[in-house]
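Submission checklist for the structure archive. All mandatory fields must be present; incomplete records are returned to the submitter.

[x] Identifier: UDP-N-acetylmuramoyl-tripeptide--D-alanyl-D-alanine ligase
[x] Organism: Phocaeicola coprophilus DSM 18228 = JCM 13818
[x] Residue count: 461
[x] Sequence attached
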Amino acid sequence: MYAQLFTFCRFAMYFSVIFVRIIRLKIKKRMETITSLYDFFTECGQVTTDSRNCPEGSMFIALKGGNFNGNAFAEQALQKGCRYAVVDEPEYAQKDDPRILLVEDCLKALQELANYYRRQLGTRIIGITGTNGKTTTKELIATVLGRKYNVLYTQGNLNNHIGVPLTLLRLKPEHEIAVVEMGASHPGEIHMLTHIVEPDYGIITNVGKAHLEGFGSFEGVIRTKGELYDYLRSRKNSSVFIQNENPYLNQIAEGLNCIRYGQTEGLYVSGHVLKCSPFLAFAWIGEKGLHEVQTHLIGTYNLDNVLAAAAIGRFFGVEEEEISLALSSYIPQNNRSQLEETPNNHLIVDAYNANPTSMMAALENFRHVEAAHKMVILGDMKELGSSSKEEHAKIVDFLDTCNFEKVILVGPEFGCIQTSYEKYPDVDTLIDHLKSDCPIGFYILVKGSNSMKLSRLPEFL
């Protein structure tokens, strides 16, 4: 019996050693693949995943989507000027063409290449996430830091598992700081993105009720956004920039070096609203005293965003006068709280995104805007799951307290709510109505999720 047990143990030890060696070989092989891919990337200097956009000498990485297979366009990308094409299906690498590089998984290769490249450069990176305001805050931070540094920052809304690595691969040795936006609609996404980006510093703008269908609950939102804090706890000498009055962020920031900003006196940066009619004017206090700034941002809810940028600018040694100049010069784009004047009306267009938190903030701000005739056009808030009807009803209840002269609701979610306000099933139906009955002389707030396409309305108002 003992002899059999001894023989079994010997075989078990033998196979465990073999297993460990196989695992080590796989890891080594994968790392060799990424280092080899990195060598090819350095020849190219840039990456594309779109065969319709192939800069001369770039590297094409064939990604897959629900309705396309990038492998099928690899040869086309080479013909259009790419130096190399990376594929993950052997049939597209059968030709004896040294320009076609085969990997196990193109998306994984893109992410690992971005992480490896980020490590080679060692650029200081600020990671930013949050429910609302992260894109505006990212651009404000980049504008402020740009007064002293060569800054790379996320373009547009490229903040997902593809956009983040593409942002990192735009880094150049001359970039001194990068501001990388990270978005999420499901648990674990920020965890995954932080391990690609490996940020040195972080900021969560806020947490709110968005993507509840994916997160499952508001608590799920907090946990997922907090994955940025979780990552930074593992890094030495890291810091987070935190809105001092936010109870949810303070609850999950334990053990972190917190640089605080907000409306409380005595913070690293503190400030308050001077006026908002409709553009935000605010005052902030740093090390050198009080600064008053007139911005091109609409809404008192942008106070946190400008104070965050001021705090980060001060932390990185930007002169306080330069911080104020940067904040006063920034002009928002992409349908985020833009003021538009038409021959008939003044419009506040905030049609890029909408969730219960941002919708309520926009309405609260608009009710305080001084105007003789005020009107709101609201589109559905998407991805709220089982909470959708309740959250849309809350918005309608709040509208009842605002005394706006006219209210128009667009979409099937608002359509389910019992109310006397005008309702339209979609933007096309509303446009048909506006063509024959356009309001005149109003201040109009236009807000809804991007998929509602309310950004089409200004030309009919």
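[x] Structure attached
Curator remark: The mean pLDDT is 87. The chain has three domains: 32-103, 122-329, 338-460.
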